[in-house]
Amino acid sequence: MKSQKLYEADDKLIVLISDNYNVLQSLGSFGINLGFGDKTVNEVCEAQGVDTYTFLAIVNLVINGYKAFDDFSRLSIPTIMHYLHASHEYYLDFQLPFIRKELVEALDEKDNLARLILKLYDEYAEEIKKHMKYEEKFLFPYVESLLDKQPLPNYDIDTFSKHHGQTDQKLRELKNIIIKYLPSDGLRNNQLSATLCDIYNNEEWLAKHSDVEEEIMIPAIRTLEKKLKQNDVSAKISSMINTNPGNQDALSEREKEVIVSLVQGMTNKEIANHLCIAPNTVITHRRNIARKLQIHTPAGLTIYAIVTNLVDISSVEI
User: Would you kindly state where each structural domain of the chain is located, as residue ranges?
Assistant: First the structure.
């Protein structure tokens, strides 16, 4: 009987498996070998090079449907991708051929209906292969490029998410046809029943695999994309400021006051009144600021004022 306990790093891994034997399928995808004795989840993960937080996030989702992750940035994307890649290998190289072999043994291939069932299964298997090969060809290299901090152009995780749909419709159809319409003798009935149990397990595994992609992988990669974009903006600002180290020093105190006034949303006329200077003088100051900093927009000046401590970010209305 499955336990609905929410597992933690200090729980013994053997207890987790005893409660939920299906976790055994996941261990291989993480690269965790058996023979770990009475070690805790954290001890096993550390010894075998697996991120504990990510392991528990996936296991608790698969076992209990737990989705309330507190911090997607803590998830290890290399661990997630290793898990998904190994899961693809398991499914394509073992699970799909194994079930087909069971079907062949359970069906009379001389029967037209049996041949149609095998054809339906082959169509399903081909659909799954295309789905997983797409991820291997496009998604996985894109994620690698993110990890290398050189994201590939014209692709992002939202593009993948929009085309990431369920692929088990043919499997459900196959299962229902066997149950409702396929006559069999006693021996074949036993074989078909055993095969159907494997198909049900296969259907459940595929749904959980899809959940890991939707609930863990996609949000984790989206978080990484945002982080890289933020870092890229910061780097550009830093480069812009540091291209000429004398830029800030070259600004006069009056020019700094003009920048602060602009950041606060004042018009040229309001700045002139505030600083007791002529409107044309304000315009001249703004031209000099743009020339010295090579920043020509209010948004750019706002960022510059924040990172150079001319203004406090809390006082800026974004």
Answer: 13-68, 74-238, 247-315
Q: How many residues does the chain have?
A: 318
- Give the pLDDT score at 144: 93
- One-letter identity of residue 249: D
Exposure string for 186-208, b = 16+ CB within 10 A, e = fewer: eebeebbeebbeebeebeebbeb
Collect all residues with Cβ–Cβ distance below 8 Å to 181 and sequence separation of at least 6: 113
CB 73 within 8 A of CB 227: yes
Start-to-end CA distance of the chain, whole Å, equals 54
Instruction: Specify burial of residue 315 (Cβ count, 10 A radius: 0-12, 13-18, 19+).
Output: exposed
pLDDT tens for 41-85 read 999 999 999 999 999 999 999 888 888 777 888 999 999 999 999
Q: At how many degrees (to 10) do helices 77-90 and 140-147 cross? A: 160
- Whole-model pTM: value is 0.70
CB neighbours of 182 closer than 8 A, spacing ≥ 6? Answer: 107, 113, 114, 117, 192
Q: Where are the alpha helices (DSSP H) in the chain?
A: 13-19, 23-30, 41-47, 52-64, 77-90, 96-106, 112-134, 140-147, 157-162, 169-181, 186-212, 218-242, 247-250, 253-263, 268-275, 279-293, 298-307
Measured on CA atoms in the order 259, 263, 268, 271, is the torsion positive or negative?
A: negative
Q: How far is CA 94 from CA 87, 88, 91, 97, in A?
A: 10, 10, 6, 6
Residue range 228-256, pLDDT digits in tens: 887 776 666 666 555 554 444 578 999 99
Class of domain 247-315: mainly alpha
Q: Is the pLDDT of residue 263 over 80?
A: yes
The first and second tokens of residue 204, run together, are: 């459940």
**Count of CB atoms within 10 A of residue 72's CB?**
16
Do the Cβ atoms of 10 and 41 come closer than 8 Å?
yes
